[in-house]
C-alpha cells in the first residue's frame, strides 16, 4: 500500500461551479499524477508534478489547473466545471522515480450536471 | 497522439486458455508498462520492461517488447476467472521521463 488517498470519492456538481479534487500521499514521493478515465478513451494524463511547485501539462490539460504547495498534496481544480468533465479522476504516485511504476488511488467520480 | 494502441479491445476466453494482448506505440520509449484494472478500482502495476529488454516474466505473465516494430505483447498463461479485468499498456517516452501515457486498454473476460 503506497499510502495514497483521494477526496472526495464522489461528487455531483453543476455546470459553471469550481471543483477541487485532492490527492494525498503519506510517503513523500516526488512524482504525482492526475488522470481522467472515460469509456473508449482509456486513461488520459491531465497534469503531473515532479516536485513542490513543479508541474507540467499532460494530454488533456485544458480546463484544469493543479497546485502542489507541499510534497504530500496534489490538487486538481476545475475552475468552471463543464459536462464534458464528467469522468472518473485517478491520482497516482511514482515510487521509484518519474519513469517507474505508478501506484493509483481508488478514483474520484465527478458528475457535472 | 502519443497514446499506445491496444489490440484487441475485448477478449473472451475460457479458463485454462492463454490470453494475448498487444500494444503498439509511435515514438521511442524509455520503458513500457502493463497495468490491470478490476471494475471500479484503481489500476495495479503488473510489469515494466525497459527499451533494452526483449522479454520479462512474472508468474503467469510474459511480456515481450519489439522496439523495431514499436510493439509489445502481454501473455497470460492458464487464465483464471479471477484474471477478468481490463489491461492497459503505458509508455514512458524517451526524453520525457515522468510522463506516462496509457493506451485504451483490453477488456479480458475469462469464463469458468
Features:
heterodimer; A: 113 residues; mainly beta; four-stranded antiparallel beta sheet; globular; B: mainly beta; five-stranded antiparallel beta sheet
Q: What does this protein look like?
A:
The complex is a heterodimer of chains A (113) and B (112). Chain A is mainly β and 113 residues long. Chain A contains no helices and eleven strands. In chain A, the strands form two sheets. In chain A, strands 2, 4, 5, 6, 9, 10 and 11 form a seven-stranded mixed beta sheet that branches. Chain B has 112 residues and is mostly beta strands. Chain B has strands at 5-7, 10-14, 19-24, 29-37, 43-50, 55-58, 61-66, 71-76, 85-93, 100-102, 106-111. In chain B, strands 2, 4, 5, 9, 10 and 11 form a six-stranded mixed beta sheet that branches. A five-stranded antiparallel beta sheet of chain B has the order 1-3-8-7-6, with no helix packed on it. In chain B, strand 9 and strand 10 (100-102) form a beta hairpin. Chain B starts with a strand and ends with a strand. The model of chain B has no long low-confidence stretch (mean pLDDT 92). Chains A and B meet through strand 4, strand 5, strand 9 and strand 10 of A and strand 4, strand 5, strand 9 and strand 10 of B.
Amino acid at each position: 500500500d503506497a499510502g495514497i488517498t483521494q477526496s472526495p470519492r464522489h461528487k455531483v456538481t453543476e455546470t459553471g461551479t469550481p471543483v477541487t479534487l485532492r490527492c494525498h500521499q503519506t510517503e513523500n514521493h516526488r512524482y504525482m499524477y492526475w488522470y481522467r478515465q472515460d469509456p473508449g478513451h482509456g486513461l488520459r494524463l491531465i497534469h503531473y508534478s515532479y516536485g513542490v511547485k513543479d508541474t507540467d501539462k499532460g494530454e488533456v490539460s485544458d480546463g484544469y489547473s493543479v497546485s502542489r504547495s507541499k510534497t504530500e498534496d496534489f490538487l486538481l481544480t476545475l475552475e468552471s466545471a463543464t459536462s464534458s468533465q464528467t469522468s472518473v479522476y485517478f491520482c497516482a504516485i511514482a515510487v521509484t522515480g518519474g519513469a517507474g511504476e505508478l501506484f493509483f488511488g481508488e478514483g474520484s467520480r465527478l458528475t457535472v450536471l | 497522439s502519443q497514446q499506445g494502441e491496444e489490440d484487441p479491445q475485448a477478449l473472451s476466453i475460457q479458463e485454462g486458455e492463454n490470453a494475448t494482448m498487444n500494444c503498439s506505440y509511435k515514438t521511442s520509449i524509455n520503458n513500457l508498462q502493463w497495468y490491470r484494472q478490476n471494475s471500479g478500482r484503481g489500476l495495479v502495476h503488473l510489469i515494466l520492461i525497459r527499451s533494452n529488454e526483449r522479454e520479462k516474466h512474472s508468474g503467469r505473465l510474459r511480456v515481450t517488447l519489439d522496439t523495431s516494430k514499436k510493439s509489445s505483447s502481454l501473455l497470460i498463461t492458464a487464465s483464471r476467472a479471477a484474471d477478468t479485468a481490463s489491461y492497459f499498456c503505458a509508455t514512458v517516452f524517451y526524453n520525457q521521463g515522468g510522463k506516462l501515457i496509457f493506451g485504451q486498454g483490453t477488456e479480458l473476460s475469462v469464463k469458468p
